[in-house]
Design goal:
The protein is α+β, with helices and mostly antiparallel strands. β1 and β2 form a beta hairpin. The longest helix has 38 residues.
């Protein structure tokens, strides 16, 4: 940045009167705010001419050392660019919502016998997708209900294609056994169509169709089949009573409400209620950052713009605050390729839905504050126990392996009263003797803190290590080598019988360990962080071990290189599918001759 003081009035006077986006930078070149404008010159100059700016804006303007602008063809295009930049740059003065990347969907595949499955990712035209759902639990519950009523398969193709007898799901009447042709493609297609209609909210059509089937079965005196259809109808009616909104209409809608609360600083919660095909799928709460000085309408505008950017949009969005629709509504409609309606002042049952979402937001905000109060109490207790009054950021390490195989180290981060999932890291440990936990600890700490020693990244206030004196000594060696031995670090040794509450805290400088009472709030925080590091390490170790074993089984067969190995695993959906394949089926994979197929079969069995 230039040493010459930035003159906002002069800069803005030279801007064009065109739509665009502006980025405000501080003295070290960080983008602190991103905004859009229909007239760049007028909008940017307003920051340097008005005297009635809010305290938040005054503070922001005082930090401006430069401004960058991008001209766009329209204000709608500026809105798109603005929100892309907010998501990628996370400026400190913009309202910021955590990006959930992608929501889960329920998928019906386009096979002869379609598969019902959980799906997350980009949508295509090959399969039928229903959703999005607010969380994975709702998808799993929906799959369970549809299995119970329509008996659709949920197994992977690699399993389905190699069954010789029906699985347990058939025995407990959760599948109709298409893998061994216990149902014809035509009958299975009817069940698939009924499931699709149900997911679209056309439940009355489904009930009518099942009632006709029941009557037909009764007329031909097939009472067992008639009883099955009767049970289907009863199950569907129970689902209707629990999950469908009062109108019974097959509509797709999102209901968005916002609540705020003052507890020294202003906090907001946005609650999103999802209704798809007339079914109430549940809700999700969002807690935006950088909201001080903003109003509820500002928060809702920011949520709608950020949440629906490049994501599925329902035909109806219901909110209870007056916001600007002149850009948002046409932009969402253009993105979706159909008309999107945003209702600002709902009446009747839609008002009831909005009131429900508002209550959800209020309750979620209260619960969040209670959780934070609990975390503050735990952190304060730990600060006192360890005599670290400024303790805030904690990094915890754990090592996981099976008899020295596929060693993985984890690092989890606790900061500002919560675990920071986006800062978690895993490290594949190599070039050590199998089972050498001390060597693994040295390696992970060296890799983690060598960058911080070069002033890249944040220094923790405390390092926790899952282990006893040996691990603490290994950690001390590395931290001294890196010149970071002034960072406090503690080993968490499991107590007798590995029972929670009996942990001992091992310090590098003292012989006697510290043993906190089992009900000590500070110990509860250590256990929470240690357990999370353990879970994260085990998860990574299992994934690495399974991948290693899958590859090594095929790698040991002469004549199977990387290309043929990939061909086999891809065709059969993994090693399990390869193991269950016959010689004739193996021969059909690309690059596999009859002789090689026989060799693979012989080696794997």
């Amino acid at each position: 940045m230039s040493a010459v003081a930035f003159d906002g009035k002069v800069f803005s006077s030279n801007l064009p009167s065109l739509p665009g986006v502006y980025r405000m930078l501080n003295a070290v070149g960080e983008v602190i705010y991103v905004g859009k404008a229909i007239d760049l010159k007028k909008r940017v100059s307003s920051y340097f001419q008005k005297s009635n700016l809010s305290p938040r804006i005054q503070l922001m303007v005082s930090q401006i050392a430069g401004i960058e602008t991008t001209v766009t063809r329209s204000e709608a295009e500026a809105l798109l660019l603005e929100n892309n930049l907010i998501k990628s740059l996370a400026p400190r003065y913009n309202i910021l919502f955590r990006d959930d990347k992608s929501y889960p969907y329920l998928m019906l595949s386009q096979h002869t016998y379609p598969r019902l499955a959980f799906y997350r990712g980009a949508l295509d035209n090959q399969h039928q997708y229903f959703g999005p759902f607010p969380n994975t639990g709702v998808v799993r519950e929906s799959i369970h209900l549809l299995q119970k009523v329509f008996r659709l398969r949920t197994c992977e193709d690699s399993v389905f294609n190699h069954r010789t007898r029906p699985c347990l799901l058939y025995q407990i009447k959760r599948c109709s056994g298409p893998c061994v042709h216990l149902i014809s493609p035509e009958e299975y297609h009817k069940d698939t169509k009924s499931a699709s209609l149900f997911l679209q909210g056309k439940q009355n059509e489904v009930l009518k169709d099942i009632a006709e089937k029941m009557q037909a079965a009764s007329d031909r005196m097939d009472y067992e089949q008639a009883a099955m259809f009767r049970d289907q109808m009863q199950a569907l009616r129970k689902i209707q009573e629990k999950q469908f909104v009062e109108s019974g209409k097959a509509l797709d809608a999102d209901v968005i409400a916002c609540a705020s609360l003052q507890d020294g600083i202003e906090r907001f919660c946005v609650n999103l209620v999802m209704i798809r095909g007339g079914r109430h799928l549940g809700d999700k709460s969002f807690f935006p950052q950088n909201v001080q000085g903003y109003k509820i309408a500002d928060v809702l505008e920011a949520f709608i713009a950020q949440h629906y950017l490049n994501r599925h949009v329902p035909s109806l969005i219901i909110i209870g605050e007056k916001i600007r629709l002149d850009i948002l509504q046409p932009l969402l409609s253009e993105q979706a390729g159909r008309k999107i309606t945003i209702v600002l002042n709902p009446v009747g049952e839609r008002r009831v839905w909005l009131n429900m979402a508002t209550e959800n937001a209020r309750l979620a905000l209260q619960q969040m504050l209670l959780r934070q109060a609990s975390q503050e109490e735990r952190l304060q207790a730990l600060q006192q126990a360890l005599n670290l009054p400024n303790l805030s950021r904690i990094e915890c390490f754990d090592i996981s392996h099976t008899m020295g195989e596929a060693t993985v180290a984890s690092c989890v981060v606790y900061d500002n009263f919560s675990l920071r999932n986006n800062e978690y890291r895993r490290y594949n440990i190599t070039d050590i003797a199998p089972g050498d936990d001390y060597g693994a600890m040295r390696q992970v700490l060296l890799r983690r803190y060598s960058k911080i020693a070069e002033e890249e990244g944040k220094l923790p206030d405390l390092i926790l290590i899952d282990g006893g004196k040996g691990q603490v000594s290994a950690a001390q060696e590395i931290l001294i080598e890196l010149g970071l031995n002034d960072i406090p670090f503690v080993g968490v040794a499991k107590g007798e019988g590995r029972k929670p509450g009996l942990e001992q805290l091992i310090f590098p400088s003292t012989e006697k360990p510290l043993k906190l009472p089992a009900d000590h709030a500070g110990l509860h925080l250590i256990q929470q962080i240690r357990d999370e590091a353990h879970r994260f390490a085990i998860q990574g170790h299992r994934a690495r071990r399974n991948k290693s074993r899958t590859l090594s089984s095929l790698e040991q067969i002469a004549g199977i290189g990387a290309k043929r190995r990939q061909s086999l695993l891809g065709r059969f959906g993994g090693l399990k599918g390869v193991l269950s394949a016959s010689i004739e089926e193996l021969q059909q994979a690309e690059g596999i001759s009859r002789a090689l197929a026989e060799k693979i079969y012989r080696e794997l069995h």
